[in-house]
Amino acid sequence: MRIITGLVAAGMLSLGLPLQAADSGFNLETVNPEADRLALQAFYQKRYPDVAIEDYVNGIYALDAESREQWEEIEEFPPYEFSIEEGEELFNTPFANGESYADCFENGGIGVRQNYPYWDREDGTVKTLEFAINECREENGEKPLKWGKGDIARISAYMAWTSRDNVFDIQIPEDDSRALQAYLDGKKFFYTKRGQLNISCANCHLQGSNIRIRADLPGPMLGQVTHWPVFRSKWGNLGTLHRRYAGCHRDSRSKPLKPQAEGFRNLEYFQTYMSNGLVVNGPGARK
User: Fold this and answer.
1) What angle do CA 122, 181, 31 make, to 5 degrees?
2) Cα separation of 286 and 248, whole Å?
3) How does residue 63 score in pLDDT terms, banded at 50, 70 and 90?
4) Are 239 and 245 in contact (CB under 8 A)?
5) How far apart are CA 218 and CA 272, in angstroms?
6) Helical (H) or strand (E) element with 184
7) Which of 104, 136, 204, 248 is catalytic?
8) Does pLDDT of 5 surpass 60?
9) Is 136 in the active site?
């Protein structure tokens, strides 16, 4: 812990880099999601002027040429390929009542990843794709799948695969202040310091993008959610975004929320809105 703390202090924090890209405020009266999104893009355009905005869907590989070369070799035989096939089989297997996942989703669940997470006006909450998959199961008398990895990651990977190159278009209804509050809560979560290391998501993935912390190069916040689920070499299998959220908390010596807890869903809502205009490129492969 002492080593990480020292590197954080001596590395990213001493560079004088801004801690925020967003400047529309942290209350309902001033917060403006579209202003935040444009400010985030401007932040990265100024910091890495040679990187095209659309390349941020590739995470750290948009910024670090050496890592990108290794990643492109991996993508020649992507480790998530079999998971997509398994996810397709799971997706098309009928429930005991004869219904299927396709009956729960718009367009039969094909090509819809770019619309998640969304604000569910009726239930008054943010629903992620994995949340909706388990909700579909329970509505049809099936037990929910475990969050984080396994079948839920495979089904999500298949649905992402059918949505590749579709443009993210997350909506925050202007006539429902609860949706804006959820976005604001996610934004606050991203910028709030926590844990024994007293660092925030922004410290690593905004201020610390592409700055080495021990052996790791934190990826940029822009585009960070476009490629999930991800096959991580460290995991040796496919996992969901919320599994990674939990890992980030443990890395900062803080207690993570449970996957699909409201706080994590609001964080995903904020982060995905920030990537509006970028394309779905999941599932992905990462270190």
Assistant:
1) 140
2) 15
3) very high
4) no
5) 18
6) helix 177-191
7) 248
8) no
9) no
